[in-house]
Predict the 3D structure of the following.
Amino acid sequence: MKAIALTQYLPISHPDSLFDTTIERPVAAGRDLLVAIKAISVNPVDTKVRAPKDAVEKTPRVLGWDAAGIVEAVGPGVTRFKPGDRVFYAGDITRPGTNAEFHLVDERIAGRLPESIPFETAAALPLTAITAWEALFDRLRVPTPPHAMPRKSILVIGGAGGVGSIAVQLAARVAGMEVIATASRPESIAWVRELGAHHVIDHFGDMQAQLTAAGFPTVDYVLILNDTDRHFPAATSIIAPQGTICTIVENRDTLDVSPLKSKSAGLVWEFMFTRSMYGTEDMIEQGRLLEEIARLVESGQLRATGTEVMSPINAANLREAHRRLEDGHVIGKLVLKDF
Ligand SMILES: NC(=O)c1ccc[n+]([C@@H]2O[C@H](COP(=O)([O-])OP(=O)(O)OC[C@H]3O[C@@H](n4cnc5c(N)ncnc54)[C@H](OP(=O)(O)O)[C@@H]3O)[C@@H](O)[C@H]2O)c1
């Protein structure tokens, strides 16, 4: 089968950083689905795993986690799907990736994809939607209406990126919160407003001052979706007493959590590969939440976040998508479709 792979970890400008190849088609065992890939999308995790280093792979390594496609075959333990079903999913970081014609995924982390949602629309969603959903509802435990509490507020740092584009919508439209998103350019500011942000501030400016000017001296939740080292100190001063900060981005320096003590404020992490990496008992929640995401897209409550589709799925297009993600200013999601 066709695949895009690497053996060396090279800068994306190098033609061998990702190359076209053919590899053996895998066989579904256990609870795995063999999926014929119709569309994929690219995430910063792809570029982080591909980042230059000295290691060399003996056999070509396939990256990529987001995918939408059709079930081609199922393992003997599969109960939720059959050949011919349409699925979308974000895969498992410990397994070979989706940048190939066929791919194996555990049925518990795949969602059924309705006929009304095209593959290229679906491929943009899984990784970012799982991250945003788990961050808001599993980690921050944001209440959903109807509830008796006063309207809560959330600051989404990095609102126009892949994860932010879903998080802003879920926070505003599903959780009914007052949403302050950050964006630094006219295009990204317009995008987060379209997605439902009630206020927009600049993550490169003084966020505390801008929030106060917008009428929010503190917020109930802070969701950090970019550069934790840079934003964590501001988050600890912006967070309200008894509030919670969630970050999804690894830190390089030690984080000072001491300002949280007097506020009884919390810090939680979200890593969307935790459930598949540790095979947690509730892994199937990812399959279920993807189906809820599909329902929200079908009903028009959630706007799909793919902003550009490249075709075909080949090394040249994939290198271009990685290059643009590494630049750090992608709005929404980049999708590739059809081999
Ligand atoms: N833990 C997890 O499970 C998980 C899951 C998904 C992603 N992640 C990580 O989360 C990060 C974001 O992922 P993504 O897919 O949303 O990325 P992305 O789409 O590449 O994010 C691009 C956006 O980031 C904004 N941005 C750039 N520099 C920023 C800064 N210093 N502070 C705040 N915002 C900034 C840009 O806005 P402007 O153009 O307006 O500046 C742009 O819209 C990545 O590091 C990724 O690896 C973690």
Summary: The domain at 129-269 is CATH 3.40.50.720 (Rossmann fold).
